[in-house]
Amino acid sequence: MKYRPAALLRNGHFNTIYPVLFRGQNVPAYERVRYETPDEDFFDVDFQKAGNKRIAIICHGLEGSSRSKYVIGTSTLLHQNAWDVAAINHRSCSGEINRTQRMYHSGATWDLDFLIDMLLPHYEEISLVGFSLGGNMVLKYSGEQSNNLDEKIRSIVAVSVPMDLRAGSIQIGRRSNYIYEKKFLITLLKKMKIKARQFPELIDEYSIPSCRSMYDFDERYTAPLHGFVNADDYYAKSSSKFFVEFIQRPALIINALDDPFLPEECYPESIVAQNPYCSLEIPKYGGHVGFVEWRQKYYWEEKRILAFLSEHSRLQAF
Length: 318
What we know:
The chain has 10 helices and 8 strands.
């Protein structure tokens, strides 16, 4: 199942931007459930259900949501093929700011763990799917929980994953990626202004505009608000490439070679090759969570996700 894009899509930036600007989709008839967490916070999950015995949990990327186009495409395709779907909205990403100083980050697996515990009694199989930040999250979770992972968890797919977060942070700060970094910072810093009003003793609202890079953001906010010493400590403790060796479920990682967000450190072929449960596919093209298929309703990585999850499911579609 090889990705063969049209000529125009053999450019990583174009493949990355095209779905955001031009992919037309209707938001599914999600059923939203709010989960109250043990730390007196909440996160929202949007479900597509049809009484199936298997469910795929989808984790979106940085500043995405269940309404991100790659989530809608994946969720809808899976749902049409006998999967229930739970599309997580990470804390602060469902349209309402969360209550605590903690928000979400690439290594924040606590809400994923909580949701899995909530769903285990209701399903015979669970699969995990993550994109970008969410891809790092599902890989880290599967590795750190390898000895405690419930047998119902059948497979993991991670797409466009910054497996080395420090290298990825440096990469997003390159001049060629200015527009992406700026877009992320605009929404993240808006949230920080709200957090500054919630927690003025922790965040200086007047210093927020001087934060001009993702590395600065992680140094000033992600790290201290989530118990890390600094940005480098956060990157070292949260990068999924340090967890893949422990994964004991079939896991597929898809990172396009022309992904503008990913430096060479995010293609750890030798590390992945040491784990027989894991495979790293590196298509020549695809951009960052792109993989556009011209005039097709569903994109290549969405079909690849369905194929992999189905391959490792004991349950048959009906």
